[in-house]
Design goal:
Number of strands: 0
Pfam family, one: DUF6533
Radius of gyration: 20 Å
Keywords: Membrane, Transmembrane, Transmembrane helix
Shape: elongated
Protein name: DUF6533 domain-containing protein
Helix content: over 70%
Number of domains: 1
Largest sheet: none
Order of helices and strands: HHH
Organism: Paxillus rubicundulus Ve08.2h10
Amino acid sequence: MAAEFSDVVTQLLKQELAKYLNVAALSVFDYCLTLSLEVHHVWGRKWEITRIVFTISRYLPFIASAMTFYNILYSHKVRVFSTVAQHGPT
């Protein structure tokens, strides 16, 4: 029973990771499509509030995605949950 439950949890985690990877791939694809426009319209300008806000909104999702992937792959809660599922609560 515990092994079956552990397999289900593993499959759900793999599906969640696959969804995040799909979104990341679309984000990188969009970034590549619009990079030439960004170079033309943004990179040559001086640093003003609009450029700062644009840069943060443009690159923060990549940082957040990396943190999310790390959390999914190395989350302590998942390891504790898996241990409890396999061995039962103490």
